[in-house]
Specification:
The protein is an all-beta fold. Helices cover 0% and strands 42% of the residues. It has strands at residues 6-11, 20-25, 28-35, 38-43, 57-58, 63-65, 72-74, 91-94, 97-101. The chain has a 3-stranded antiparallel beta sheet with strand order 1-9-8, with no helix packed on it. The protein has a 3-stranded antiparallel beta sheet with strand order 2-3-4, with no helix packed on it. The chain has a 3-stranded antiparallel beta sheet with strand order 5-6-7, with no helix packed on it. The chain has a single domain, classed as Rieske Iron-sulfur Protein. It contains no helices and 9 strands.
Length: 102
């Protein structure tokens, strides 16, 4: 059973390894990434100038760079070397469905 704050995002089959997907939950755009079977969920808008992180470059260290100005955020915790932090969402999979804690 899923608690009140776990919200269904998509079926896991819609997000195969190496792919990304944009979902909207409670009017929030969330960028989903499947990196070698690990799911990451981050608010789609860069806190700097609202660049769409879904279109960002993913580096080997597990970070994403905003396509507008190159600000890099860690997909695990949203941290950055810049004076900003991106919002990340915990995820889990149950019965082939991906849930986000929103």
């Amino acid at each position: 059973m899923v608690s009140e704050n776990w919200i269904e995002a998509c079926r896991l089959e819609e997000l195969p390894s190496g792919r990304r997907k944009l979902v909207r939950i409670n009017n929030i755009e969330i960028a989903l990434f499947n990196l070698a079977g690990v799911i990451y969920a981050i608010k789609n808008r860069c806190p700097h100038r609202s660049g769409p992180l879904i279109r960002g470059f993913i580096d080997a260290a597990g970070g994403i760079k905003c396509p507008m100005h190159g600000w890099r955020f860690d997909l695990r915790d949203g941290s950055s070397e810049r004076p900003a932090r991106a919002t990340v969402y915990p995820s889990k999979v149950e019965n082939g469905v991906l849930y986000l804690w929103v």
